[in-house]
Amino acid sequence: MIFRYCSGPCRKSETNYDKILYNLAHNRKLPPKDMPPQACCRPIAFDDDLSFLDDNLVYHTVRKHSARRCGCV
Fold first, then answer.
1. Is the pLDDT of residue 48 over 90?
2. pLDDT over 70 (residue 73)
3. Using an 8 Å Cβ cutoff, are 37 and 72 in contact?
């Protein structure tokens, strides 16, 4: 089974708004609980489903198991 994953920073997808919020929180002018989540590198498309037969002759299908394309979301 081939497993491809996504990793890395998503700084390029940040807007000026995101940068300002980060700066305010970093300088303790904004409570950390008010910070919106940061963009992260995630799969935006997956390889085809993978089906296999186990030792008990039961078919299993694994969906969304390997990244085809990555993006910042």
1. yes
2. yes
3. no
Residue ranges per domain, the chain? 11-72
pTM above 0.70, yes or no: no
Radius of gyration for the chain, computed over Cα atoms and rounded to the nearest angstrom? 19
> With respect to CATH, is domain 11-72 assigned 2.40.50.100?
no
- CA 3, CA 68: separation in Å to the nearest integer? 10
Neighbours of 30 (CB within 10 A): 15
> Within 13 Å of residue 47, how many CA atoms lie on the same side as its CB?
13
Tokens matching residue 50: 């993978």
Q: Per the structure block, which two tokens stand in for 69?
A: 């394309």
